[in-house]
Design a protein that fits this description.
heterodimer, A: alpha/beta, 6-stranded mixed β-sheet, 34% helix, globular, B: 2 domains, 7-stranded mixed β-sheet, 4-stranded mixed β-sheet, binds adenosine-5'-diphosphate, binds magnesium ion
């Protein structure tokens, strides 16, 4: 479970301080695909970056389960990202020069630890599930955009992260590939019981959402979760 | 995995890898070649002492190099001969002379007179004829490398040095001094050429018995001959090298070109590593986002530098050994003491790491937040 309490973010360009995210409270549960949408500049990326521990909020608190992750050191944040998060970006961002399999294994071994013994079989199985059989030893540039994006999902999932964050995962893909990616993400959320948050302003992803949150000018303007009141109580009660 | 990632990146980014390799190779090759010439010249400086086979040299007092000793009496040899420690003691006479070539021109040569039959301090390696040919009073040697300069004399040819008739008795192989052409001759012949008073010599060479404590023997010689300088061979060799090294500006000039070679290499390595890392900033940002610490990124870049340095050092040494083999036995001085390659390799790897520092700074600053749009 991911919990945000009154998280806000100010950016100062030059002398002026500008609030791009107003105090936001949010609770995301496992087994649910949350879509975060809104017009360009509404603060989606800012919110996702804070959730993803690559940006520190100006105000508020954040928790993963019962662990407070609001103000971590660079190394602590990196280690939590490594252990608990999977990321899927707008572009697949695979490392050229490494094979698809190496790219997937990268998220295991980037801090220098040995990948678990079964990780090669796991990676192969994962690639197979994602329709990437036979690509393990290929260079990323030989794959189509959709295949690369699925490879990047494999890279995110190989560690079994409880939280999966996706930033516009379909916007660089054609309709069909986008569909496949979203189906995959949806299945991951529900079957594998993970917190999945997808930032997108692509209306085609909305049907996949268990929960759709609209952001405008740094404020949540709508949230399809019916139990909004209940959520507030959870947030209050738990801390 | 970090070094594996580095290796894959090095193999993939071929143009920058090639560029950085060139920088490393330039350092190894240019510095190695400079050092080999420098050590080759250093060898020339002390060539007579190093090949003399003597343990001690008795010279006039306060000599600064083995080529400039005042004349001393040959009786020192007799005095020393009687000592228990001493195997032999032989005089040597060094002077300059003008060698008359076939076409009637003259070349300045350094004549070294040694006493028959031992010929201590004489030629040590022959290209044509041998030691025996030098037992003749009229015989002189010329060196293979100087043949052309001296008008291609052949064994048996008669010519003149310093107005004295001599016969080419043998051709030496690689007998060359810092001051140029070395000609070995008999003691009497050199005395005639140099017109030195009889019984006066440049140095007395002393060899101690196998059983003697050489340091103690040296001290005893010094005690017996307080009015003369008694050098160990190694001591005189160092003294001579230091003298030429500091007085001729060789040290400065070689130092300068070595520094330039290193600088050029560092600039090439820095620029190419920097460009290579710039092209990989996005990859480093992704790695950061998925959990790499700054340390991990730094290790990737350092590994890249180490891999390139390792390969570059290897190629550099291959090229260097090709060059050294080609110049070996030519008139180009070249010599690398056995410890130099290891030091050069370590030095180059350290320099390559320094060269990767700018790239390292860029890489660890890759912002994980930049991967979101
Ligand atoms: N690093 C930054 N420095 C200053 N302003 C920023 C920075 N990142 C984002 N912003 C501003 O914050 C606002 C929200 O941006 P963002 O979160 O990227 O919106 P979205 O992802 O919804 O398009 C925008 O007005 C943007 O200009
Ligand atoms: Mg955005």
């Amino acid at each position: 479970m991911l919990l945000l309490k009154n998280i806000a973010k100010d950016f100062s360009d030059g002398r002026e301080k500008r609030r791009v995210l107003f105090p936001t409270s949010l609770e995301c549960r496992a087994g649910e695909l949350t879509v975060l949408s809104g017009p360009s500049g509404s603060g989606k990326t800012t919110l996702l970056s804070i959730i993803g521990l690559v940006l520190t909020p100006s105000e508020g608190q954040m928790f993963i389960d019962d662990l407070e992750v609001t103000a971590l050191s660079d190394v602590e944040a990196a280690t939590i990202r490594l252990k608990r998060y999977g990321f899927v970006f707008q572009q697949a961002m695979l490392v050229e020069g490494l094979t698809i399999l190496d790219n997937v294994m990268l998220s295991f071994a980037i801090q220098g630890e040995k990948p678990p013994a079964d990780s090669f079989e796991k990676a192969s199985a994962l690639l197979k599930t994602l329709g990437l059989e036979g690509t393990a030893q290929m260079q990323p540039r030989l794959l189509s955009g959709g295949m690369k994006q699925r490879a990047s999902i494999a890279r995110a999932l190989i560690k079994d992260p409880p939280i999966l964050l996706c930033d516009e995962p379909t916007s660089a893909l054609d309709a069909e590939s986008g569909q496949v990616v979203m189906e995959t993400l949806k299945r991951i959320a529900i079957e594998e019981n993970r917190v999945v948050i997808v930032v997108s302003h692509d209306a085609r992803v909305f049907p996949f959402a268990d929960r759709l949150i609209q952001l405008e000018s740094g404020i949540i303007t709508s949230d399809t979760r019916e139990s909004n009141q209940e959520e507030k109580e959870i947030i209050h009660a738990s801390h | 995995m970090r070094s594996y990632v580095a290796l894959r990146m090095v193999l993939h980014d071929r143009s920058s890898t090639t560029g950085a390799l060139l920088g490393v190779i330039a350092i190894v090759f240019l510095v190695g070649q400079q050092l080999s010439i420098l050590f080759g010249l250093l060898n020339y400086m002390s060539v007579l002492v190093d090949h003399s086979g003597a343990d001690a040299w008795i010279t006039s007092e306060n000599v600064r190099n083995s080529d400039a000793s005042g004349l001393i009496s040959g009786r020192y040899a007799d005095r020393v001969m009687g000592l228990d420690d001493v195997e032999w003691a032989e005089p040597m006479l060094i002077s300059n002379g003008l060698f008359r070539t076939k076409d009637g021109s003259y070349e300045s040569v350094r004549v070294v007179g040694t006493k028959r039959p031992r010929l201590a301090g004489g030629a040590w390696e022959f290209f044509a004829a041998d030691q025996d040919a030098m037992l003749d009073r009229e015989s002189v040697t010329v060196d293979r490398l100087d043949l052309e300069k001296l008008g291609n004399p052949r064994v048996g040819d008669i010519t003149e040095i310093g107005g004295q008739q001599v016969r080419i008795g043998a051709i030496t192989n690689g007998a060359r001094g810092f001051q140029g052409t070395l000609v070995f001759a008999s003691l009497d012949k050199v005395s005639d050429i140099a017109r030195t008073p009889p019984g006066r010599y440049s140095a007395i060479l002393v060899r101690f018995k196998e059983s003697a404590d050489k340091q103690a023997a040296l001290e005893r010689l010094r005690a017996i001959l307080p009015e003369r300088s008694v050098h160990s061979a190694a001591g005189l060799s160092n003294l001579t090298r230091t003298y030429y090294f500091t007085t001729t500006g060789i040290g400065g000039s070689f130092g300068f070109s070595t520094v330039i070679a290193v600088l050029i290499g560092v600039v090439i390595i820095s620029l190419t590593m920097y460009t290579s890392v710039l092209g990989r900033v996005k990859d480093f940002a992704v790695m950061r986002a998925i959990g790499a610490r700054k340390l991990d990124i730094a290790l990737v870049v350092i590994s890249e530098a180490m891999i390139i340095a390792g390969i570059g050092v290897f190629i550099g040494f291959v090229l260097l050994s090709v060059l050294l083999n080609a110049t070996n036995g030519s008139s180009i001085p070249s010599f690398l003491p056995s410890e130099v390659p290891a030091l050069l390799a370590i030095g180059t790897i350290l320099i390559s790491l320094m060269g990767s520092l700018i790239a390292l700074r860029v890489a660890v600053k890759a912002e994980p937040a930049s991967v979101f749009h």
